[in-house]
Design a protein that fits this description.
Elements (H helix, E strand, L loop, with lengths): L4 E3 L3 E6 L5 E7 L9 H11 L16 E3 L3 E4 L4 E4 L4 E6 L21 H8 L15 H15 L4 E9 L2 E2 L20 H16 L6 E8 L13 H10 L4 E6 L10 H4 L3 E4 L2 E4 L7 E2 L2 E2 L4 E7 L9 E4 L5 E4 L13 H20 L5
Antiparallel strand pairs: 1-2, 2-3, 3-7, 4-7, 5-6, 8-9, 8-10, 10-16, 11-16, 12-13, 14-15, 17-18
Helix pairs in contact: 1-3, 1-7, 3-7, 5-7
Length: about 350
């Protein structure tokens, strides 16, 4: 299986399956001398791990990370730092229930990658989707923590859930501090309460629902990216679309730009404290594929979880008509736990572009 690696100068490869003994990643291209311990990585994994509320899958995983290579206890600084060598990390799977999938081993689940995996490889791991499972994103989040170390404290990456189903947050009530206070990474307490009621109904019906995640990155200087095939926004879109169940990505105004007039969409410039500034940010912090110094704004739409307890028509791998419903433990809204994954993917792209930008000018 190819294409398990993402990035250019700063790149990572993930490995492992949902119901295998472990999963993990190898991060290559990380500069030497950065402080990095397992304790620096674990908080991001804790944010993503399952079983933290009734609104997500009840699979219980500690998601404890182990760094296997690429760091060294530096006596001069008294702390553990990166060596410049590949950083290998592992996360053990401890709560698999593979028997839950025995009924669907020969069936193609609608909305899943079962059919396409069989067509491409002639074999598939039916236990939780194997490599196509969202469980793989734990490794991305670990790699994203390393990327944050490369970016440093001047770059702030924050994501929030701004829509579940048809209920979207009113922008006037947005509060970043509220994101860490509820089960939905929601920046509005009132909407979070409404979502809880919505999700209880969805879960009781055995169904699922989609969501919209918004990621905002502050502190990116002007000049990261490239004007043709290495565009910062193109790489961000590619990264976000690689997240399980992602179906669309917006940068800045996104789809709303199609309804704008030129005088409204263009972000006017002026001089502020002797430096260029913008009066709006419809372009999401990127112009011509290169960062402007404004906040980089990305949204990713996540489709409803395909594993539902409602019987659907399908085929077996012998092309026999049948029906299927999915047993086991699944997220009724996989978009909730996509929030820390979106942050990680943004960090990984930006770390790569930071290193690329370093060699652009003498």
């Amino acid at each position: 299986m190819s294409h398990n690696t993402f990035g250019h100068l700063f790149r990572f490869t993930t490995w492992g399956e949902s119901h295998g003994p472990a999963l993990g990643c190898v991060v290559d291209g990380c500069p030497a001398g950065l402080a990095l311990t397992e304790a620096d990585i674990q908080p991001y994994l804790d944010k993503r791990k399952p079983g933290q509320s009734r609104h997500v899958t009840q699979r219980r995983e500690a998601d404890a990370v182990r760094i296997l290579s690429g760091v060294f206890e530096d006596e001069r600084t008294g702390g553990q730092v990166t060596t410049g060598a590949p950083i290998s990390m592992m996360i053990e799977n401890t709560d698999q229930r593979s028997k839950d999938y025995s009924d669907i081993r020969d069936k193609w689940r609608p909305g899943h990658a079962d059919f396409t995996y069989d067509e491409k490889y002639g074999v598939r791991d039916y236990r939780g989707g194997g490599r196509s499972s969202a469980r793989e994103t734990a490794a991305r989040v670990a790699a994203g923590a390393v990327a944050r170390a490369v970016l440093g404290p001047d770059v702030t990456i924050r994501a929030a859930l701004v829509q579940i189903g048809e209920r979207r947050i009113e922008r006037a009530r947005w509060d970043w501090d509220e994101v860490q206070r509820n089960d939905f990474f929601c920046p509005d307490a009132q909407t979070a309460k409404a979502w809880a009621e919505d999700m209880d109904a969805v879960r009781k019906a055995g169904s699922s629902v989609g969501a919209l995640v918004e990621c905002v990155v502050s502190g990116v200087p002007a000049g990261w990216g490239a004007p043709v095939y290495g565009k910062l926004d193109a790489d961000l879109a590619s990264a976000m679309m690689s997240i399980n169940a992602a179906k669309s990505v917006e940068i800045g105004a996104g789809l709303e730009a199609a309804a704008m007039r030129g005088e409204d969409a263009a972000d006017e410039m002026y001089l502020k404290d002797g430096a260029p500034a913008f009066r709006s940010n419809h372009n999401g912090g990127v112009l011509g594929g290169i960062s402007t110094g404004q906040d980089v704004v990305v949204r990713v739409a996540i489709k409803p979880t395909s594993s539902i307890r409602i019987e659907r028509e399908t085929l077996t791998n012998a092309l026999e008509p049948t029906t299927v419903l999915t047993k086991g433990r699944h997220d009724p809204c996989v978009g909730i736990r996509a929030v820390p994954v979106a942050e990680a993917m943004a960090a990984l792209v930006l770390a790569d572009h930071k290193l690329r930008a370093a060699g652009a000018r003498l």
